[in-house]
Amino acid sequence: MINYIFRRIIQMIPTVIGVILLTFILFNIVPNDLAAISLGKNVTPEMLERFDNNRGLNLPLFYGYKASTRSMNDQNFEKGQYDWRGIGVSYNNEDKYISIRSKNNFNPLLFKLDKSYEYEWTGIARGSGIIAGNNFNSNQWKKFKIISNNENSEFFSGNIDFKKIKIRKKIDNPYNSQLFFYFRQLSKADFGYSESFKQPVIKLLSDGIWPSLSLTIPIFFIGLLISIFLSLLCALFRNKFIDRFFVILSVALMSINYVVYIVAGQYLLGFKMNLFPVWGYESVTYLFLPVLIGVISGLGSNIRFYRTIMLDEMYKDYVRTAYSKGASKTRVLFRHILKNASIPIITNVVIAIPFLYTGSLLLENFFGIPGLGYLGINAILSADIDVVRALVLIGSLLFVFSNLLTDICYALVDPRVKLK
Questions:
Q1: What pTM does this model have?
Q2: Which residue(s) pair with 167 in the sheet?
Q3: CA of 279: how far to CAs of 190, 357, 369, in Å?
Q4: Short-list 217, 221, 191, CA closest to 206
Q5: Which of 4, 25, 279, 297 is the most buried (most CB within 10 A)?
Q6: How many angstroms separate the Cα of 31 from the Cα of each of 280, 310, 387?
Q7: How many Cβ atoms from other residues are within 10 Å of residue 5's Cβ?
């Protein structure tokens, strides 16, 4: 088995890399501007640049020698004047170009450039003067490319017309990209920094995991035991009153919205009867009501699922053989049927394991439990990209590892399954 586990771990490496790449695509490529989403629209370009720099977003996406900077937007004056305005600057509406007629230095940058990089200026211009600290002279429209690394030099002066211009930061190492920056972060267990909570994401996750597990683990195990017991009871008394009663009850439980359970439980058991506290996370007693609601709300679907599994096993040949040998109904149920029904039960159980980590979104928010579900909802509402990305990535990786756990459990409970 050890050799099998080792081989499966080796096989999981491409899957894990694929999950990381998919997460990278979802959060770095699909959104238009992560910084603007996280910080809002009423921020300065320098704040956006700082956000990009801390997360590697001001680097090439996968590979490259150039990267954009928020110090100046790309200017295409053939489509409009944009944001270049000042003394000695005018726009020709007929021929669609900008004119600079100034002996003084005109600086279009929104903030100072980083001295540790060189910058490449490219565009289409004509005239005589200085562009980014370099002399320029051409009577005709001409493409230019100028390298500048001195932020204190003159930017634009003289008599120059521009149709297009843009600036790019030069990258010495083409592999110094957003993708490799993300891999380097993950190799150090660094999931970024939360702008809304002003804390590292790893600290938020470590603080929220225990409240979530203290809620989801009791719900999971109590609900599992009760569901299997009641499904065995239904199988034992199939087509009788007990079986029909639990079928009707499970359908009724499935038909009620999850929020109704929460609101009714808080109002009746918490407010009216004063049996449980309804808000906070100060002691174990604060978990009794949300755990009770979580167990009851999940019983309907679980009873239906496990009852179907048990009834499928009830009509197989080995059950009739066991009865013909004089085995009691209780022995057949717990020694034969339950063991042979363990494969679909394990599949259903292991699939639920990653959700234990993410917590219960509604329960944590309605009861004020500071778990990962509560953290996730607040991160989505405040567009806290780093927190959302970390929750999605870890949840996806847990699904990958749960598949390995499923295969191992199959071999442990069913001798017909061989790990090869």
A1: 0.80
A2: 121
A3: 32, 21, 8
A4: 191
A5: 297
A6: 35, 47, 15
A7: 13
Q: Each residue of 208-263: pLDDT tens digit?
A: 999 999 999 999 999 999 998 898 888 888 888 988 999 899 999 998 888 899 99
Residue 60 · residue 178 · CB < 8 Å: yes
User: Cα(25)–Cα(30) distance, rounded to whole angstroms?
Assistant: 6
Token pair for residue 302?
Answer: 């679980």
The answer to whether 269 and 223 have CB atoms below 8 angstroms apart is no
Q: What is the DSSP string of 9-61?
A: HHHHHHHHHHHHHHHHIIIIISSS-HHHHHH-SS--HHHHHHHHHHHTTTS-S
Token representation of residue 129: 């003067």
Tokens encoding 71:
């110090």
Name the pLDDT band for 420 (thresholds 50, 70, 90). low
pLDDT score of 296 = 92
Residue with tokens 């778990």: 371
- Write out pLDDT tens, residues 48-73: 888 888 888 889 989 899 998 888 88
User: Does residue 192 come out as left (phi exceeding 0), alpha (psi in the -120 to 50 range) or beta?
Assistant: left
